[in-house]
From TrEMBL:
Database matches in SUPFAM superfamilies: Triosephosphate isomerase (TIM)
Protein name: Triosephosphate isomerase
UniProt subcellular location: Cytoplasm
InterPro entries xref list: Aldolase_TIM, TIM_sf, TrioseP_Isoase_bac/euk, Triosephosphate_isomerase, Triosephosphate_isomerase_AS
GO CC terms of this entry: cytosol
Organism: Hymenobacter aquaticus
Function according to Swiss-Prot or TrEMBL: Involved in the gluconeogenesis. Catalyzes stereospecifically the conversion of dihydroxyacetone phosphate (DHAP) to D-glyceraldehyde-3-phosphate (G3P).
Subunit-level organization: Homodimer.
């Protein structure tokens, strides 16, 4: 059975002290909830906080540590960058790749993301690979062609064994930070399409085993309906992950 995952992407928010306090609150709240063995929680704080937050999480054991990005090289003269191997050494288990903000603001393309993907997998980490269309693409009725191309160019060069480690996050760009959210029917339609593409590229078993998250303004109010769709396996949560009560309510949606 594929995993259900709720992953909190803090982006460039929180001070160190506020981040530690937030994690302590979430850890205490989640520890009091009965989560199925199939549910995982991931927190992806800013890079400077990873080591300290990782130590807090290891004590509770209910939440896994994620990173928001990594460099494609294992080491070298790349000032300001962090490698997958370095992330692994401080307890990171998941790495977000291909987020629309990285694609838009830092011009990350399929070729670069392919290299990062290989680096993450080589370090024994699990990528959360993001895909998603803009409002213009959706209004032009080109959503499925666009997503099919992102999947083909970004992921489908992986071997079966490599692909088994991948989590996919569908993030409609028009719904990120805008307050707009895809309806549960829209989310299900796209997630089912993604699963169909996986089956074509690999096989039906791979399609059924792949965790596909929704990542567009999911919150405590709509998470239960979204996660109730047969092909929606959880969420990549932005703003709501910065509030302990909201994030915990989203986790409890399972």
């Amino acid at each position: 059975m594929r995993k259900n995952i709720v992953a909190g992407n803090w982006k460039m928010n929180m001070t160190y002290q506020d981040g530690l306090a937030l994690v302590s609150e979430i850890t205490n709240m989640v520890a009091d909830e009965t989560l199925g063995a199939n549910v995982e929680v991931v927190i992806a704080p800013p890079a400077p906080f990873l080591h300290s937050i990782g130590k807090l999480l290891s004590e509770g054991g209910r939440i896994h540590l994620g990173a928001q990005n990594c460099h494609q090289k294992e080491s070298g003269a790349f000032t300001g960058e962090v490698s997958a191997k370095q992330l692994q050494s401080v307890g990171v288990e998941y790495v977000i790749l291909g987020h629309s903000e990285r694609r838009q603001y830092f011009h990350e393309d399929d070729e670069l993301l392919s290299q990062k993907l290989k680096a993450v997998l080589a370090a024994g980490l699990k990528p959360i690979f993001c895909i998603g269309e803009s409002l213009e693409t959706r209004e032009a009725d080109e959503t499925f062609d666009f997503l099919a191309a992102q999947l083909k160019n970004g992921l489908f060069h992986l071997s079966n064994e490599e692909f088994d480690q991948v989590v996919i996050a569908y993030e409609p760009i028009w719904a990120i930070g805008t307050g707009k959210t895809a309806t549960s029917e829209q989310a299900q339609e796209v997630h089912a399409f993604i699963r169909e593409q996986i089956a074509r590229a690999y096989d039906a078993e791979a399609a059924q085993n792949t965790t596909i998250l929704y990542g567009g303004s999911a919150n405590a109010q709509n998470a239960r309906e979204l996660f109730g769709q047969p092909d929606v396996d959880g969420g990549l949560i932005g703003g709501a992950s910065l509030k302990s009560r909201d994030f915990t309510e989203i986790i409890k949606s399972f």
